[in-house]
Amino acid sequence: MAVPRLSTRQTAVIWMSAVVVWGLLLFGYRYLGVLAAGEHEPFLVKFVEEMTAGLTIGLLFFPCRAFVQRWPLDHETWRRHAIPYLGALVVFGAAATTSMWVMRWALFPLAGLGPYNYGMMPLRYFMEFPIQAIIFACIVGGIHAVDAFRAAHVRQIRSAQLESHLAQAQLRNLRLQLQPHFLFNTLNTISSTMYQDPAAADEMIQQLSDLLRASLHTAQRDEVPLSVEVDVLDRYLAIMRARFGQRLEITTSIDADVREALVPSMILQPLVENSIRHGNASLTGAGRVDVRASRDGGSLVLEVEDDGPGRPVGDALRAGVGLTATAERLALLYGETQRFDVGQGEAGGFLVRAVFPFRTDRAAT
């Protein structure tokens, strides 16, 4: 991605402004020097002299720019390019002195100042050369500094794009990892139920079909409104209820003001699945899982808590795909503005809490 360039009109305005400012600064310095010395010289003389000096530098900027682009200086080329730069300095000094002499020779009579006398021209070239060398060095250094800034800006943009593409690829991989994970687990559940309760297995197959159809709408999105995520979760819970019946109690407490908040797609289902698989529902055949969503200032808080025996934090994060993939996705999406905590709940079961910035589609646009 290239850095946006100025239009021709903008460039012309900046160039003309630089010429005028440079000329006025030179004029102020020279004319105040005349006054400070107690001398008397027409105001217009110094004004014409220094404005032509500013215009000369402005005109010579463009060949200097072309020269620098042709012969850039860096740590590898400066030795090879030293001789061309010395030659360019001599040409620049001679061209600047000649240009100022020609413009003043033409403008002085037009301004009513009489013929212009620049003195002995051979000596004038040598006299002006030190100042011209300083100006040439400033122009060349300024051009290199601007080019270096632009190059650094381009590298920064490209680096950010690469990081963004890498993060998106990682998110896609994690999402693709979650989808077959829950599908295989659900199919295993159906398989284990098929011979014990064919009617429940048939109901689960129908609910799985609805769940897969609903998940297609969010398959390519990193974030979805919480209401959409809850709808997908409800279809998954319908499968679990077909398996456990009244023995599984699921409660969802979603505050009204967070239903349209953006959340990572497929965030609730693996957390709830983890609570069912490792809570009392699977261990004793009956259990409870609570799903909560609320707002805490500028953050959205999602909690999933079961009534099981709980697990050590390290064991929980190593237990399977769900928690690990969720933690990695939150880190990729929200960086340091998110928290993902696992541990023991107030009732003694296992609690998962995800905290990340609260925002909606309207806030994001």
Provide the descriptors you would attach to this structure in a database record.
Heat Shock Protein 90, 365 residues, alpha+beta, single chain, 2 domains, 11 helices, five-stranded mixed sheet, two-stranded antiparallel ribbon, rod-shaped
Outline the secondary-structure elements.
Layout: H1 8-36, H2 43-70, H3 78-110, H4 121-194, H5 198-216, E1 223-225, H6 226-244, E2 248-254, E3 262-264, H7 268-278, H8 280-283, E4 287-296, E5 299-306, H9 313-318, H10 321-334, E6 339-344, E7 350-357, H11 361-364
Parallel strand pairs: 2-4
Antiparallel strand pairs: 1-3, 4-5, 5-7, 6-7
Helix pairs in contact: 1-2, 2-3, 2-4, 3-4, 4-5, 4-10, 5-6, 7-10
Report a brief summary of the structure.
With 365 residues, this protein is α+β, with helices and mostly antiparallel strands. The protein is built from eleven helices and seven strands. Helix 2 (43-70) runs antiparallel to helix 3 (78-110).
Protein model, in words:
- The chain has 365 residues and is α+β, with helices and mostly antiparallel strands.
- It folds into 2 domains: 8-158, no CATH class; 197-364, Histidine kinase-like ATPase, C-terminal domain (Heat Shock Protein 90, 2-Layer Sandwich).
- Helices cover 66% and strands 12% of the residues.
- It has 11 helices and 7 strands.
- The chain has helices spanning 8-36, 43-70, 78-110, 121-194, 198-216, 226-244, 268-278, 280-283, 313-318, 321-334, 361-364, and strands at 223-225, 248-254, 262-264, 287-296, 299-306, 339-344, 350-357.
- Strands 2-4-5-7-6 form a 5-stranded mixed sheet. A two-stranded antiparallel sheet has the order 1-3.
- β4 and β5 form a beta hairpin.
- α1 (8-36) crosses α2, α5 runs antiparallel to α6 and α7 (268-278) runs antiparallel to α10 (321-334).
- The two termini are 23 Å apart.
